[in-house]
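Q: What does the predicted 3D structure of Acyl-CoA dehydrogenase family protein look like?
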Amino acid sequence: MSTTEPTTTRWERRPDTPEGWLERARDVAALLAVDAVERDRAGATPHAEVRLLKESGLVRLLGPVEHGGGGQRWDTAYRVIREVAKGDGSIGQLLGYHYLWAWAVRLVGTDAQIDAVEQLYTENDLFFGGAVNPRDSDVVITDEGDEIVYTGRKSFSTGSKVSDLTVLEGVLDGTDDHIFAIVPSDQEAIVYGDDWDNLGQRLTESGSVEIRGVRVPWESAAGYVDKRFQPLVYNTLNTPTIQLVFTNFYLGIAQGALDAATAYTREKTRPWPYGGDDKDSATEEFYVLDTYGDLQAKLWAAEALVDRAGQRIDGLLHAERDSVTAAQRGQAAVLIAAAKERIVQTGLEIATRIYEVTGARATANSAGLDIFWRNLRTHTLHDPIAYKRVEVGRYALLGEIPEPTWYT
């Protein structure tokens, strides 16, 4: 990352419109894109990158205006995630997860908890991580009177060492009750494994974490009053909300791939001299124009569907919590499933086929075009995309909407 102007000076004034925030996100993405490949190769903990997100104000985007936040809606947050991911897919993921976990208290907390947490993170510019991998069921919570104690392990904890606050999840011993709590990340009882060594999304700090007796007052157990939870349909919006987070940073990565490829073709790709209809420039080659036209059309179509899904769930996330119905939630979830399926297929196709129109020299490590496929291929395996197609198929064929699960 490089800039000729200190970010604290560049970003003294915070935007107050959605377009202003999107422009801020584009500025951040441009800085990240300068050395995204080099930072990816190095794999260092992204402290500087998260500091950039804080200095730009993007961390506070969803925070209440009265506490110094942006006061923006989720529709804007999704677009911001997408813009940042164009410059660096890993940092787009970190920001998206931060938005989800910052909203988690609103999803499941009490009114008092919502006020306290939103004031805390917004005023202090705190960054969220989460240890909530649903496939790990070995975090056990014990009830010790006025406190609950979390103990166990999670395979993934995105944000880990760059987070200020961590969302914990576990099951109360002897029950089926899941309890979420927000705790400080920097404490002896949270031990990060530093074992994130994956093909892509290398800067997301998504390694394992050991929870060694994290103590939380019962009054901080999200949504619990007198040790009892009162469920709402609104609580179940967490999964479709984060599935659309995924969808948007996939879209951003795909857009970044197409932008990088077209720039490479314009600047470096040589025309093929043995085709019988020789051109002076690769940009005049029929197959090059045909391929880019095909990929751009598919990307625009995916973007339109993603935006439609964003508008749908935005209306629910900003509604009165007790007004959201199961039918509304299901309609949003199936649309998000369709949008995710489309950008996964389109994004992977783009990240693969760009080599057909950039040429053999574009496979050089110095070109860095591999980062897009690696990032997409890594995270799009989060949960099987076939199940998203099945959800859409059940809706199309049988009129059934998805039931809430940890992945739907």
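A (community wiki): The structure tokens above were generated from the sequence. The chain has twelve helices and nine strands. The chain has three domains: 7-127, 130-229, 233-398.
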